[in-house]
Write a structure and sequence with these properties.
The protein is mostly helical. It contains nine helices and no strands.
């Protein structure tokens, strides 16, 4: 079982393993129901029934479904970061790091994979589709900050404001075009995705080369 991050939206962080497992079931149920009924029809009671837990267990962690969606978005970001880290580590072990181009492909491939396969991701992703969290904590800023911290060492770059701005622009561009690709085709229009890759390569080459 993958650990659940201590989301800022949690009323109470799980302490015991049993409590952490219950939280995982609640978030899994929330993700599944988002795909089935959408956010507007989502309810804490339905999540409790799907997770097989008392409704009080849901309210022990979350005051409402918005907080639940926020926690799911944060878990998505944690899992995305872990997958990117694992892929980049494997690339380094193969002796072909590839610089920022390899890193960009890994980041995009993992994001597209989650978009296609992760339950509830198409509605929540990292918090962009359903605005969650505090107003100042914009999801794309959160993603850009995480990528800056994660990739700066891999790219041998200082994680300064310039690099954060570069990644924020790249994240905003990818977010817009990926969502366009998935509006055009259920699995993502490959032509739009390829155009996005070319745009990002051109922009990052100017800044990072």
């Amino acid at each position: 079982m993958k650990p659940v991050p201590q989301a800022t939206s949690l009323r109470r962080a799980p302490v015991q393993r049993r409590s952490a497992e219950r939280l995982t079931r609640i978030l899994d149920a929330c993700a599944d129901l988002l795909d089935e009924v959408g956010y507007d029809s989502l309810s804490t009671r339905a999540v409790a029934l799907r997770a097989g837990v008392p409704i009080g267990s849901v309210y022990r962690f979350f005051g409402n479904k918005r907080q639940m969606a926020d926690a799911l978005a944060q878990r998505n970001l944690e899992r995305f970061t872990a997958s990117v880290t694992e892929r980049l580590s494997a690339t380094g072990e193969d002796g072909d790091e590839g610089g920022w181009r390899t890193a960009m492909d890994v980041v995009l491939d993992e994001y597209l994979s989650m978009k296609r396969t992760a339950p509830g991701f198409s509605l929540v992703d990292f918090g962009n589709q359903i605005p969650v969290g505090a107003r100042h904590a914009e999801p794309n800023h959160r993603v850009a900050d995480r990528l800056t911290d994660l990739l700066s060492g891999y790219l041998d770059r200082t994680p300064d404001d310039d690099l954060r701005r570069t990644f924020l622009i790249a994240v905003e561009t990818a977010d817009t075009l990926v969502h366009l690709a998935f509006r055009v085709a259920p699995e993502g229009d490959e032509r739009i995705i390829q155009e996005m890759r070319e745009m990002l390569r051109a922009y990052l080459a100017r800044v990072l080369d």
